[in-house]
Amino acid sequence: MVFWVFGYGSLVWNPGFEYDEKIIGYIKNYRRVFDLACIDHRGTPEHPARTCTLEYKEGAICWGAVYCVRGGEEKERLALKYLENRECEYDQKTTIDFFKEGETDEPTLSGVIVFTSTPDKESNKYYLGPAPLEDMARQIATAFGPCGNNRDYIFLLEKAMFDIGHEDDMVIELANEVRKVLGIMGLGVRKETSTNRLTGPSLKPKSPMSPRKLLHLPEAIAMDT
Question: Which pTM does this prediction carry?
Fold first, then answer.
């Protein structure tokens, strides 16, 4: 038995389960959006956090990481049970094709599981729907739950995408807006200096998205479960 799951949110930097292989790549015709409520990790029922889900969009691509679990039915069952508990706000498991970098025609893997959500507030109580950037930033800047602050989630995701070499314009834009809100609230964001600026061999994303300037990432250490 072989079990593959695609991560595009916190699974990119914190899978949380035992896996045998990890591959960086992308899926087609989906984009990352922050339209899903989280009420038990980085938010509460009264003040839900905003976390990402996938939205179908023809021609779009979404970069992330795929994880493989090998070793028999029991090992696969335990990994899936863990993921279903962790991703409880996602009401669908979709199977998709996965592509490694440099491959565009034939998928590297087929039948990969990805957790998604129904974009309908009537049938999916966790679906928040889209909102203006400023409203989403205020919600993310202030929400917190048992696993930490919602703002840590967006900053960690921003850093994770930077680390795999495929920054997401939407994530960067939203993270920078959250930083503006935090500045307005007086919580403070350290100014970028020559010693704490993100550095690397290249700041140019490998994905076809246009590059955007990264502001300094606060030192978020909270981990999802």
Answer: 0.80
